[in-house]
Amino acid sequence: MPDEAANLVVGADGLIGRALADRLARGKHPLLRTVLCREAGAEILDLARDAANWNPPQAVSVAYLCAAITSQEYCRRHPRESRAVNVEGTLALARTLAAAGARIVFLSSNLVLDGAAAFQRADAPLSPQCEYGRQKADVERQLGELPRTCIVRLTKVLGAGAPLLAQWAAALRAGRTVRPLADMRMAPVPLEFVVEVLLRLAAAPLEGIVQVSATEDITYEQAARHIARRVQAAPSLVQPLTAAASGLSLEHLPAHTTLDATRLRTELGLTPPDPWAAVDLGMNP
Fold it and tell me: Is the model's pLDDT at 4 over the cut of 90?
């Protein structure tokens, strides 16, 4: 790959893609960004319509495939439309880029696994229990056929001012109650940590699956109680309920969301964060 080859961030208008592109822009290599709606300095790319015919305007060294419809509810209600982006469009673009010599880094999810056990290994059988997870699993299976490809499985990623957590913090500061789910779990990691993982993958071209996870699961109720302590709100303002009692129609509530992060430690030299670092980040704008 020639020196002028660019790093490509597909989905630079999303949470992870935008943060990654901002960091890459500070580096020495050219940067290409794709977005869904017009944005200065970026290429427009609609994976549902354009992926099969789109080619980057210059050679690409590493392509980060960050674009996706990530709403589990949307994927459940609109499987055809979400698959057009998350599966068909993503795979078509990956094949084009791989054929041109680019390394592929694909962002996946712990939801490709069933969460029946804690710290599930990267080689555990794929066993998605929701439509979003099935879509990510379908891409994982087919990306295995491409050379120079790395799949990055992520647990919950929280950036500064994560909407739900920031809303809880604001409500608790104002003396209002919050109703977190007592039976929904996450192993949240800070956005900046995920970006660091992706940057290191550019320098350490690993293949296969790299899993990124916090050190433990917490419930949404635990997160809300942590925020209440941080803002010195009365504990009684946190009034948990179950998913069933909330009226939510969820396809799957995994018992565990943590992933085994051995490669993160041994090959990238990164220590998985505890979940509270991400909660602290997410509660503040």
Answer: no
